[in-house]
Design brief:
The structure is a single chain. Helix content is about 40%, strand content about 20%. It has 4 helices and 4 strands, in the order βαβαββαα.
Length: about 90
């Protein structure tokens, strides 16, 4: 397991959110999920933290902005995700 703090901003029925969460679950990474659709304050927070990114998911590991689903999967393909999670 990882001690990294992983946060993911999502919306309902978002296939990219589901895909990103699926990867984290497969890697047995605990994460905190914020739904920007049901909590507008979280959307404003996401925009501020991500530098204006409007799409979901937006993912943060230890307050470091990963980006979205594609960026998360790219980190995994390059073998860099475990380092971000403090597992390397």
């Amino acid at each position: 397991m990882s001690d990294a703090r992983v946060e993911i901003y999502v919306s309902n029925f978002c296939p990219y959110c589901i895909r990103a969460k699926s990867l984290l679950k497969r890697k047995q990474v605990a994460f905190v999920e914020y739904n920007v659709q049901t909590d507008p304050e979280r959307r404003a927070e996401m925009l501020r933290r991500s530098g204006g990114a409007r799409t979901v998911p937006q993912i943060f590991i230890n307050d470091r902005h990963v980006g979205g689903c594609d960026e998360l999967h790219a980190l995994e393909r390059r073998g860099e995700l475990d380092a971000w999670l403090g597992r390397a």
